[in-house]
Design a protein that fits this description.
Elements lengths: L2 H37 L3 H5 L32 H4 L2 E4 L4 H17 L16 E9 L2 E8 L5 E5 L3 E2 L2 E9 L2 E17 L2 E11 L6
Amino acid sequence: MKKPEIKQALIAVLLGLTLTAAVVAAQDKPEQAAAKSDAAPQPQQVRSGREYLGPTADSIRPYRMSGRDPFKKTVKPKGPRAKAQARLLGFPTLEVRRAEFRQKIAQARAHDAAEPDPVMQYLVSELEVTGVFQDERGYGAFVRAQPSGTMFFIRRGARCFNGEVVSIGGDASDPGSAKVVFREVSYTEINGKQSPQEQIVTKSPADKK
C-alpha cells in the first residue's frame, strides 16, 4: 500500500473514533443531567412551610443570660414620697379667726340679722367645760375659752370653729356624770386634696381637776 493511501486510512480511522466518542458522550449527558436533577433540592419545597426544617446553622446565635430571672416578679420599693402623701392640716391662728368673726358680725348687722355666737371663734380643743346646768329649756354647760379666758354658756347645737355640741347631759344627784359631747372635724391633705375627718370628743367638769 502506498503512503498516500496509508495516510488516508489513518485519517478515516481517527475520524471514526472521534465520532464514536462524541456519540457516547451525547448519550451520557442526559443520564448525568437527570441524576443531578434528582439530587438537587427543589426550591419550591424549601420555601414551603410544610417542608421547612428550621433555621440554618449560621443564623443561630448562642444564648446569653441577662442576669435577671424572667419568672421573678419585680417589686418596686416604696419611697419616702408614699409615706408623706397624707398630712394633717392646721387651723388659722386665733387672731385670724377673730378677724373673720368680726366680719360676720358686720355682715349680720348690715342685714339686720342675729349676730353669730362668740364660741364659734374657738376650736373644740380650746374649750374647757367648767359645769353643767339644767333649766326649763333643758341642759346647758359653762365653758371657758383657754386662749382668752372668756366664759360662755352653750347648749346643744352650739357651733365652734371646727365642730359643734352634739349633746349635754348628766345626773343631778351625781355631779361627776355631767358631760358635754362635741363633734370635732379635722382636715387631712391627701395627694393635694383636703379630706375631712370627724371624731367624737367628750368633756366634763372633772377633766379640769
